[in-house]
Amino acid sequence: MDSGRAPVAIALAALLAACVAAFVVGTPARSLRGEAAARALLDTWRQSRSATFVVESDFSRTLPDGKQLKDSTRVVQRPPNDRLAFGFGSIAGRLGGRIYRCAGAPDGSSTCLTSTTAPDYASEVESEVAALATNVQGPRPAYRVVDFADSPGFCYRLDLAVALPAPPYGRQALFCFDRATLAPTLTVVERAEATDRTEARTVRGQVTDADLQVPG
Question: Pick from 30, 43, 52, 105: most CB atoms within 10 A?
C-alpha cells in the first residue's frame, strides 16, 4: 500500500481516552479558560475547516432511556473546491466548486443534485467561525470555553453559562482535533433529549479523487 495514502498514525485510542476523561472528570489545572480559550477554539476551528483530510468516524445518539442510533460517517475535505460529508444514506457539501446534495431513499435508491457555483469557501468558513464566536465571546457569552492545553490533540469544552431555551451546543460540548491534520477526532454534545457523539476511527491528511467519488 502507498504510505502516502495510508491512515495517519495518530494514536487515536490514547487521544480520545484522554479527551473523554477531561470531559467527564473535570478541568485540568493548566487549562486555559475564558477569552483566551475562546480565541484558541476559534483559531483551531478556522484552521480545521481550511485543512485537507479524510476522517472516518462512528456516530452515536444516545437517548435518556439508553436507546441508541448509530451510523458510520466520513468527511472528505480538500479546500476550496471539495468538501463532502457522508452519513445516514446522504451526501452533502461541495464537489468541484459546486454545491452537491444526495439523499437516500428507503428502497436504497438516491437522488443527487448539483447546483451552480458554490459560495466562496473562505467566506463560508468565516461565517461559520463568526456564528461560533457569537456564542463564546463577548461580555456575557452563552458558553464558557475550556482549552485542554495538555491534551494529546486540540480539545475544547464548552460549558453553558446562560439559560437558553434551545442552546446550540447543548448543556456541554467537547470538540477535539488531531494536531497533525486538524481533522475533527471527537465531538460530544450533551442535550437534555440526547447525547450525540462522533468519534474518529481513522484520519489521513491526503485526499485523492477516489475519495470524492459519489453515485452517478
Answer: 52
- CATH number of the domain that 32 lies in? 2.50.20
Q: Is residue 187 part of a domain?
A: yes
Phi, psi angles (nearest 5°) of residue 170: 70, -165
Predicted confidence (pLDDT) at residue 31 exceeds the cutoff of 50: yes
Task: Measure the CA angle with vertex 69, ends 67 and 74; round to 5°.
Answer: 155
- The DSSP secondary-structure symbol of 138 reads S
What is the rounded distance in angstroms from the CA atom of residue 100 to the CA atom of residue 114? Answer: 5
Q: Is the whole-model pTM more than 0.85?
A: no
Are 134 and 190 members of one domain?
yes
Mean pLDDT of 195-215: 94
